[in-house]
């Protein structure tokens, strides 16, 4: 007789995780998350390269990006709300600059 347990609720990754793990948690592709991180990347005071988007902090360690979720993400998961108060880390499907104004 084998015991089967129900599928566990998604847990917020703690500490530094890979882009793939973070993307799975956020429900997006790893490439989309990496591109978004790279678009928001800045030089940190200590010389490292960092990116911070809606409480999702990323830092480059060597050639690899590692992602860390803020305390707000952990609190939302524990309360049962996966993305409360946060927008998706990617941009909209149609950027505002791509919309052509109507002629009068």
Structure report:
The longest helix is centred in the N-terminal third of the chain and has 10 residues, at 30-39. The N and C termini lie far apart (75 Å). The chain is 25% helix and 20% strand. The protein is globular, with a radius of gyration of 17 Å. A five-stranded antiparallel β-sheet has the order 1-5-4-3-2. The chain has three helices and five strands; from the N terminus they run E-H-H-E-E-E-E-H.
Q: How far apart are the termini?
A: 75 Å
Within the largest sheet, what's the order of strands? 1-5-4-3-2
pLDDT averaged residue by residue: 75
Uncertain stretches of 5 or more adjacent residues: 83-92
N-to-C series of helices and strands: EHHEEEEH
Number of helices: 3
Number of strands: 5
Largest beta-sheet characterization: 5 strands, antiparallel
Report Rg.
17 Å
- Structural class call reads alpha+beta
Q: State the helicity in percent bands.
A: 25-40%
So what's the overall shape? Answer: globular
> How large a portion of the residues is in β-strands, by DSSP E?
15-25%
Q: Descriptors for this entry?
A:
alpha+beta, five-stranded antiparallel β-sheet, 3 helices, 25% helix
Secondary structure layout plus pairing:
Elements: E1 17-18, H1 19-26, H2 30-39, E2 42-43, E3 49-53, E4 56-61, E5 64-69, H3 71-78
Antiparallel strand pairs: 1-5, 2-3, 3-4, 4-5
